[in-house]
Each structure stands twice: as structure tokens, then as C-alpha cells.
């Protein structure tokens, strides 16, 4: 028996030398079994590789087919979404047009849209997406007469849908009402064929509402079984709505309407949507570090640069109130003026901020009141000293001279310092100081963009409270030299000078009441001087009124006309009563 030569790896027996004859069969047996095991594993590996290759091809083909199917489904969904959007838009436009027609005709009917705008839902790629149903319902008001149906008008055939069949025979069916739409558009009704299993289980309604009893169309379809109604579609014009009310559906498949009783329909009617504009979202306050500083006094450095410009504009409007209305307002009035100024600036720049976020801004604006009065005081200091010839740094005789001058300037009621010509026996030109125009120019009319130049109507003519404030500032500077020397401890505070401001306010009001026309002309001339020295173009005209003499003449003329008319009316009434008495006597 011939032996097969096989290649094998060297064994420990080979290292020791030749194998004995008894050991050779066992060694050959082990070598053969090892070789057969290796060939089996190689065959299994090749088979697995071929199977994996075949599986990968099948998987790739399936993936490609699945991708195509998915792409097709997504395209179909997108198309149906577009159709649904067009359908909703069309029905909304038709409802709006029909609503305007109903209001002009005065029919007393209200239209209410019940629009379900849920997005299309699907549980798997293979499920057909059902578009949202758009239904319009016409609700008759209580007390309105029910129109009788025209028996001679032809009844259109339409397909019975799930909405037309009442599955609860114990409940009265809801009357079929027409939907408002434009008469120029032809509406189609789509059939919804029910399966035989559902058709056999549906029973027609046994009770009808009064409006359905008066409608021939609804009574006919109520008596017909669902299986006998022809599924043909019908093009219906809305001009026959009053004769044959037919429910209107879209030309796509519809979902079954959730059934509800008439009581539930009237109690759960959806409220009309508000047509008022939506409130604008408030903007965040642009703090410099992104958050409001805690436990610190508000200052302009807390905000961004562009926001600080808005605050400065609001402060300018607040300063105008202090200068032209009242220099020392109450705390409540200060808050109101600050809020009005900030609201005006935000409206001009189309900004919106919450009230809670603007508390620090309000505090910052109100705190500028003392700053405004302090700046006005500084601008008048040197001019007061020059006008009244007060020595700024007196020595000995000059100090006593300042004291004498102070007492002289405070003589009279109003005092001498309120007049331009003060150093004579009879002071004259009350309130016509040249320093007033210069101080107002530096405070409000520095350039064409300053707050006074922008709001010239607030200073034309110069308001009486403005003159009172300027007189109060003059009094402060004179009080600083009451003892001849400069009193550095004196402060222009509300506590010390609110009373002086009230006195000057009474004096200027009395001065204006003596001759309103002439005093208005004086104040207008001061305003013109301010514009002239500021080189600002005037943007407002002076409001002219009747002079006192003209007003008296016109008032007397109107009074005479009234008396003449009343006398003529009384004579006519007496004549009429005399004629009636004569007629009665003759009768």
C-alpha cells in the first residue's frame, strides 16, 4: 500500500531523529486529520465571503429602492402640503368676501370659520397623508326666521360622506347649511365611498331639526339609505345656496367629523379671532456688562453708547419741563414727566422697553433736575456780577459796598433786580434783562440740534415760569454776597429757594395780567433775541391773539347780537300766542 507524502511542520520527534516504525502510523494519522481541518475552515471562509457579497448586493438594491420610495413619499407629502395651503387660503378668502357681502346686505347672519390647521401626520412611510379639512359653517342668530325651501328648484345630487350620516339615531341631525363662498367660483363635492361593512352599520337619523324639515334636499337624503345615494360629484354654484343648501367640501379625501349635539355646538362655539395688532416684544436694556448693576446708584456709564444718547434726549425733554412749567415739581410730577420724556424718545426711535427694566432709567432722568438748575446757575453767575457791578473778591471798602448794593437791589415788590433799569429812583423794563437771552442760548440753543432749537414752540414766547426761574437764580447769586464777601456755603437747593421761586411766579403772572398783549410781545422779543444770538433758524411762528381792546369790542358786539336775537324770538312767540287767542274768541 503506497503512502501519500504530505507536507508537515517539523515535530519534536524529528528533532530527536528518525521515528520508529511503531510510531509512524500514529504520526501520519495526526497529520492527516490536521490537514483536513485546515481545508474545511478554508472552504467555510470562502462560502461566508460569497454569501456576504451576495447579501451586500441585495442590501444595496433594497436601500436604493427604499431611498427612491422615501423620496417619492416626501415629494408627495410636499405636494399635498402645497395643495392644502392653497385650499386653506382660498377658503379664507371666500369667507372674507362672503362676510363682507353679508354685512352689506344686512341679512343678520353671522359666519364662523372652523379651520383645522393641524399639520399632516403619518405613522409610516406607506400611509397616505390626509389633508386637513376646512369647513365653514353658517350660524343663524336667535329669532331669525327660517327660510322655506323652494320646492320647484331642482335638487342637486351629491355624494354621501361620513359627515352627512348621523351614526346616533337618538340625536337630532344637524341641519345642512351652506358655506359662504364667492359666486364666481364653482365648488366641487368629492365622493367618500364607505365600505360595505360601514354602510350596513349606519342607520339614517330618525329625528330632524326644524330647519332640516323645511329643506327639501336634506329631507330627501335623510330618507335614502347610504348605499343608494349616487357617488357622482356635482359642480354647484353658490347662487343656489338659498334654494338648496348643500354642504361644501374640498376636492380631496376628508376625515370624518367628530359628532356633537346641537347644544354642544352652541355652547362650544369657537370665539372670533381678534384682528387687533399683536403687541410688540419688549427689547432688552443694553447694559454695558450685559446685566444691571446691583446696589449702585444709576449712572449713564452703565449702558451702551447708543443707549446713552436716548437717555440724553429724554433728559433734554425733562429739562424743558423744568424750565417752562415748574422748576421745583413734586416727586409724583417728576416721575410723570420722566416717563413721558422717555416714552416720547422711545417712540421716535421705534424702541420698546418694559417698565420694570426702565426703573433705573427713570431714576437717572429725575436725578438730572438738580443738575439742570446747577448748570443754569453757573451760566448766570458772571453776568449777574457784571450787570449789578458786584465786586467778586472785595477788600474792606468793596465788601461794605457789596452789602449796601445787596440791600438796595432787594427793595420793592418785585425787587429792583427784576428790572433792567434798576439804578434809578423808579426801576423800569421788568424782565427784559439781556442776560436772560444769553443764558437761554447757552442752556438750550447751543446749536441747531439742541433740544431748545428742536422744540422752539416750547419757548415762543418765553414762558412766565422761565422768567420766574431766571429771577430766582439772580436772587441766589445776590445772596452769596449778602455780607459783602462771597459765601461759599450757599447752595441753590429746592429747600432754600422754592419759596423765592413761588414769589417770582406770582409776580410774573401779575405782570402778564396787567397787559397780556404787550407782555406777550416782550416775551416774544426775548425769544427772537435768543434765536438771533444762537444763529438758529426759526421753525415756528408766534401765536397771535386779539388785543385787549379788540377783545372787548368783539365781546360787546356778540352780546348785542344775542340780545337782539332773543328779543325777536320773544316777539314772535307773543304774536303767535295772540293769533291763537283771537281764533279761539271767534270760535
UniProtKB/TrEMBL annotation:
Matching Pfam families: DUF6532
Residue ranges with Acidic residues bias: 100-116
Low complexity biased stretches: 195-220
Residue segments, region Disordered: 1-63, 88-300, 565-587
Regions of compositional bias (Basic residues) in chain numbering: 43-56
Chain intervals with Basic and acidic residues compositional bias: 88-99, 565-574
Residue ranges with Polar residues bias: 27-39, 249-261
Name of the molecule in the record: DUF6532 domain-containing protein
Natural source organism: Phanerochaete sordida
